[in-house]
Amino acid sequence: MRPAADDPETRTSLAAHLAGAIRWLAGGAMAVVLGVLLGAAAVAMVGNGRRIPGLGVAVVVLVFIGIVGVVAGCGALVRSLRWRRGLATTPWRTGRLHIAGPAILAFEPDGYDELDPDAERVQLRLLSTAVWRTRAVQRLNGADVLAAPIGRGQWVLTADGLGTVVGARAVRRRS
């Protein structure tokens, strides 16, 4: 079986995910730099006797939003690189996706109904908190999807027409 990363659609989806991570990282870095420059300008204006109401709050908000963007971008970048590395060695598994809640899903690999010993139902929780991504996955209820385990309880999912890859974590069953 060939690795999932050899599929052209998978490569495109991973590249899009990586580009989004870089956009978050770059946007956050720009907001921090802009906040620092605006802060320096505010200090210079106050030194000249000019005061602009709300400028200090704007600086703090810009820097805070920038830091959040940098953290989100770094997390997405690490996740994207981990997914790329995991999919380079793991083939896609075909199966059916069932939705049990807003971010709770079950993946049934092909052969699950025929009692194939290797085909085991996997309970998953989406990693994404983006509303649009969660809704896109929810629309796949009962649909055929591709899934690949990429290590330590992490899974990556995609489907025809989804246009992206989605991360999920295996949920441990309570005894």
Question: How would you sum up this structure, described in words?
Answer:
It is a single chain. The protein is an alpha+beta fold and 175 residues long. It has two domains: 4-87; 93-170. The chain is built from three helices and six strands, in the order H-H-E-E-E-H-E-E-E. It has helices at 8-47, 55-87, 131-138; strands at 93-99, 104-109, 122-126, 144-151, 154-158, 166-170. It has a six-stranded antiparallel barrel. A hairpin with a 7-residue loop joins strand 5 and strand 6 (166-170). Helix 1 runs antiparallel to helix 2 (55-87). The chain is elongated, with a radius of gyration of 22 Å. The model has no long low-confidence stretch (mean pLDDT 88).
Range of strand content: 15-25%
* Mean of all residue-level pLDDT scores: 88
Specify the biggest β-sheet: 6 strands, antiparallel, barrel
Helix percent band: 40-55%
In a nutshell, what does this entry contain?
With 175 residues, the protein is an alpha+beta fold.
Descriptive labels:
175 residues; 6-stranded antiparallel β-barrel; elongated
Topology, element by element:
Elements: H1 8-47, H2 55-87, E1 93-99, E2 104-109, E3 122-126, H3 131-138, E4 144-151, E5 154-158, E6 166-170
Antiparallel strand pairs: 1-2, 1-4, 2-3, 3-6, 4-5, 5-6
